[in-house]
Amino acid sequence: MTKMTVSTLQKMKQKKEKICVLTCYDASMARLLDQEGVDVILVGDSVGNVKMGHENTIPVTVDDMLHYTRAVKRGNTHALLVADMPFLSYETDPKEAVRNAGRLIKDGGAEAVKVEGGLEVAPSIKAMVQTNIPVMGHLGLTPQAVNKLGGYKVQGKTPAEADRIVTQAKILEGAGVFAIVLEAVPPSVAQAVTEKVSVPTIGIGAGPHCDGQVLVLDDMLGLSERTPPKFVKRYASLRDLATAAVRGYKEDVQRGRFPSKEHTYDV
Ligand code: KIV
Description:
The protein is of the alpha/beta class. It contains 11 helices and 8 strands. The protein has an 8-stranded parallel barrel, surrounded by 7 helices. The model has no long low-confidence stretch (mean pLDDT 97). The structure holds 3-methyl-2-oxobutanoic acid. 3-methyl-2-oxobutanoic acid (KIV) binds next to loops.
């Protein structure tokens, strides 16, 4: 298996090969994803709600992202490792963005970072790219803006909104991003962006026209407690399996069926 880099992704877009991306938060799952040839592993700040028990991604800190990125790094060899920059770690000051991204790269082992937003974050993106830190953009439904957006709503439904997303994508391309995540936008909007920018687009709830797709790992494995959004395809029901396993273990312990001879050391 060859090592995935930002330039491999660019070539995949040119050759119209679809890019496969999944989020990941620990070393053992990273090893599994890497063995299966997933192209990009994203340590998403979705770790806030998926693993840390927060209601949304807002409380996630750079230290939290460092912790999870280091764990994922230990399990990954081939996939391009991207770490999310959490809320308020990049938006207000390009120098601070470089410092925080630098920690995720230097101390966390990430190979690139992802930020949410368009024109307003372009100065930070430029500063990071000039410092040789590859940056992935994120447009459409940007979960760090949940309070401003008034919930997790589909974006780009009116022609004006759709045009705005295409314009923002061109701005991100100009600022130097190597790829753009498009979340919860109609397929026609994702198609327009995919055709108009030279960098790969990665869709989540954005239809089939993007250059690649990303899903939150726990959602697609059926591990999440939350009801997943409409765009999630469940490939397994691991929460049901885990529930049955814990129930079986508890019953065995309570009835003295575990441990049996096969699980016990002889003298
Ligand atoms: O945090 C995350 O998991 C993400 C993906 C949904 C793209 O940003």
